[in-house]
């Protein structure tokens, strides 16, 4: 982070004259905390961002919404990732769910029926191609809106409202009619986010979120790398001034 230091230091030069040095914007180690756009939750274990969308959509519309933000309906690679999801305080509206204490959202699995004899038999599949290695849910609870003609059902993760239940890892998996409307959980790779909350594409220069608007970095795999800092001279003829927090070398003079 840039640090402003306007103290003058004096030393004796040749012939006894006084030489003045101004130290401005001393470079400091930089920490980057924002790797997701506003409204998304970051998980370091998978270098991914997650967001629950409240606008109730059927499964297929939810898939398209996630794709529009360069993501997909969430699948999980390990139990720790699922526990991270359960531990988050998602901003969920009651009207989007059946019960206040039990809230569900679409995730990226489908249950395929293979036998409809005495009991429904089938197996889980990842709903979209190209996903990384994931774990598959246990046997589901079948939803109330099931159709006897359908052989493919879509996954809803039941999220409990009460933190004590969630922190113990309590949750359920439902196989539901894919045309029911529900909230849904999107997942995308972590990304570079600039100081003005814009998403930055791979390989581009940007100024990361933080306290130094004079930092320029290259976006690489969602991380700022090869950062260079610009140093600004203090504004001439102004004793008191304020730096702009989002524009490099832009000052507002506070003198009368």
UniProtKB/TrEMBL annotation:
Signal peptide: none
Annotated Gene Ontology cellular component terms: membrane
Protein name: IDD protein
Domain of life (superkingdom): Eukaryota
A Pfam entry, by short name: Lectin_C
C-type lectin domain segment(s): 45-187
Family matches, as PROSITE patterns: C_TYPE_LECTIN_2
């Amino acid at each position: 982070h840039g640090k402003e230091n306007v103290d003058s230091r004096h030393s004796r030069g040749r012939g006894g004259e006084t030489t003045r040095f101004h130290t401005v914007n001393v470079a400091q180690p930089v920490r980057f905390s924002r790797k997701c756009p506003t409204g998304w939750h970051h998980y370091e274990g998978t270098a991914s961002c997650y967001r629950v969308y409240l606008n109730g959509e059927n499964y297929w519309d939810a898939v398209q919404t996630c794709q529009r933000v360069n993501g997909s309906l969430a699948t999980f690679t390990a139990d720790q990732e699922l526990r991270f999801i359960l531990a988050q305080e998602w901003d969920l509206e009651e009207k989007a769910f059946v019960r206040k204490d039990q809230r569900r959202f679409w995730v990226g699995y489908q249950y395929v029926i293979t036998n409809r004899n005495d009991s429904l038999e089938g197996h889980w599949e990842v709903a979209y191609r190209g996903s990384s290695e994931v774990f598959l849910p246990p046997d589901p609870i079948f939803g109330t809106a099931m159709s006897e003609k359908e052989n493919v059902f879509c996954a809803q993760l039941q999220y409990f409202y009460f933190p004590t239940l969630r922190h113990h890892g309590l949750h359920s998996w439902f196989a539901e009619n894919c045309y029911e409307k529900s909230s849904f959980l999107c997942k995308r790779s972590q990304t570079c986010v600039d100081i003005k909350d814009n998403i930055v594409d791979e390989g581009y220069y940007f100024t990361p979120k933080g306290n130094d608007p004079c930092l320029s970095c290259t976006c690489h795999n969602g991380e700022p790398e090869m950062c260079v800092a610009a140093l600004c001279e203090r504004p001439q003829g102004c004793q008191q001034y304020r730096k702009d927090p989002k524009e490099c070398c832009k000052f507002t003079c506070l003198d009368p």
